[in-house]
Structures are given as C-alpha cells and as structure tokens.
Amino acid sequence: MSATVGHALAAAIGQGLDRLDAQLLLGHVLARPRAWLIAHDGDPLPAASAEAFARLCARRSAGEPLAYLVGEREFHGLTLQVTPAVLVPRPDTETLVDWALALLAGDLADRSAPAVVDLGTGSGAIALAVAHRHPAARVEAVDASAPALAVARANGQRLGLPVTWHHGSWFEPLAGRRVDLVLSNPPYIAGDDPHLDALRHEPAMALTPGGDGLDSLRWLAAHAPAHLAPGGWLLLEHGWDQADTVATLLHDAGFGEVQHRQDLAGHRRCTGGRWSG
Asked: How many CB atoms lie within 10 A of CB 169?
C-alpha cells in the first residue's frame, strides 16, 4: 500500500518534527498550500516526493532553518527569497521597520524624498520593507558580502521595489554623503554566546563580531554622525540585554532623543537617537 499525504505527515511528526514545519516542507515538495494538504491527506504520495520530503525532514531535524529548506521567508508582508548566504529575517526585526516608518510619517515627514540607508542588508528585508511601505523614500542598502547582496538585489528585482544596492563595508560606499535615516541590524551576539551553536547554519559574520558582541554597534554609533543630515536618525537593532549599553554609546556620540522600542517578547530590541547636526 503506497504512503499517503497524511501518513507522511504523521510519520514526520512522530519522529519529532514540528507539525507546521512538516506541513510547510511537504507543501514545498508538492507545490501545494497547507489547506490542500489537509483536504487531501488520503491522496497517495508519489515515491519521489516521499523521498524528497524525507530528506528535507532530516535536514530540518539537524537544525537547518526552515527558510533555507523552502527558499523563502515572509517579512513585513513581503515574501523574500533566502539562502544560507543571508540571515533568516526574523519578526523581531520588524520592530526596526515599524519605528523607521513611524519616523518617516512623523519627525521626517517634512522631507519629501527622505534618504534612507540600511547597513548590513543581508536579504534586503529592512530596505525592501521600507521601500514598500514608504514609496517616497530614496532607499539604499549596503552589505560587505557579495553573495548576500546578490540575494537582496534579486529580491528587489522580483518585488519591483526601487532600492539602490551597494557592495562595501558599512558607510564606505556613501563617502561624503549625508542621509536622513540610517537603519542597521548588525552582528551583535557575543563570540562565546552558547546560542551561536543553534545558529550554526547561518552566516557567522552576520551574527557575531566576536568578543563582547558590541564592536559593530560601537562603530556605527561613532561613525553615523558624519553621514547623517541635521535632524536625521540612527536606529539600531541589538541583543535583548544590550539596550542600556547602546543608549550610552549614542549619548557619548552626541545623539539626542535616545529611546528604545520593544520586540514581540517585550524586550528592548532597538535603540535609536537623533543627530542635531
């Protein structure tokens, strides 16, 4: 008797795979939505599909992110393609986007075409979300990884969103220019953090700068003033326990109106400040 859709899902779940993960993986193999799987759980599963599903389940059980296995991730209403060259976009980073959009509609609303830069863009998630939600913004994005930038650029082309992409380190491609809003989700995990092992499938350079995890945040706080227009803002994502330290870095660099925003778990996940010029 051939295996059915329902049997395959039950077997995967019985081996410890999360139910939603199993459904998404099988849906990916069959190019079908979850609702179809539920409605067709008695349908026979072709042998080739069963084998492909089993391979994906084994990789997921070994810790590979689901987004890499299915090749995409939803972020702020956009479906982004992702590969192991980029971090998997996370819901907590939507906090940074929401704050940026609030500023563009508020404190920066008098700037008809505000210049926005996303540093360390990875998949392009932050830059593309801002470009999607605030079309008047002139959005640029920078990444030091050429493979990551290729993923971001492809996402921009597929979504039809006008972001200008730059290959380089932090502000390097923007030498001599000032912008209205700088956004970044830089590497901030300490080099000896035990959680890094669970993230071993994601690019290490995007996760940790080593040491205490603060080097990138220190650098951005110190160098952003030279690239911000008067009244411009710097918004940074950071670790759940780094908010006070990042606030001190911004104060020491001369930023005013330093404040925080909380993630979905209630942690102060983002810290930002305004440059008076």
From this structure: 12
Domain boundary among 29, 62, 95: 62
Q: Is residue 86 part of a domain?
A: yes
The pLDDT-based confidence of 62 (bands split at 50, 70, 90) is very high
Number of structural domains in the chain: 2
pLDDT single digits (tens) 115-165: 999 999 999 999 999 999 999 999 999 999 999 999 999 999 999 999 999
